[in-house]
């Protein structure tokens, strides 16, 4: 695959694969209620510069989807659930059937992640209200799919918020992960799927970390007509 210059370049190129969600594609148009554009949600932090370009191309509103995975105390990388804004919590029953996690431990893990979730929401969005997702087509964008754990959690949280159709999109991803994500999303768009995938950064010339400040700036620019 041809490498991306940076996340903005990746977003512009990814947008070309998503133009059907402007309603021009007859297979997609019926999914857009009353001709409304989809809602584009960036996964902070690195997914937001990519999502900004996608939202701009689709003439769609942009927001962040802040999710926090709930990890098993003895195996933090193994998620037994996820939380989102508005008190949303989704639990993975298949994981909980195979690990021993008490109600007290679940509450403790959730409380810690709620604190971090609130901090991030305030840093990214300030006092602006989130865009309602009920009945909407939602395009969730990240800068890449490695293990897919955050993308899976994002799908569950978006559906818990009432999203009618969930699309996952990223410029690059591990082929196996892309296949697994199709069980969670209605559509998965990922044009870069190198056979020898090692890390998301391999697809970028510039893969510097995205700051909280940059996320906030992009959201404000999108709110004011994508003017920077």
From TrEMBL:
UniProt feature coiled coil, ranges: none
Top-rank taxon, per record: Bacteria
InterPro entries: PRTase-like, PRTase_dom
One of the Pfam families matching this protein, by short name: Pribosyltran
Protein name: Phosphoribosyltransferase domain-containing protein
Upper classification of the organism: Bacteria, Bacillati, Actinomycetota, Actinomycetes, Mycobacteriales
Domain Phosphoribosyltransferase: 37-191
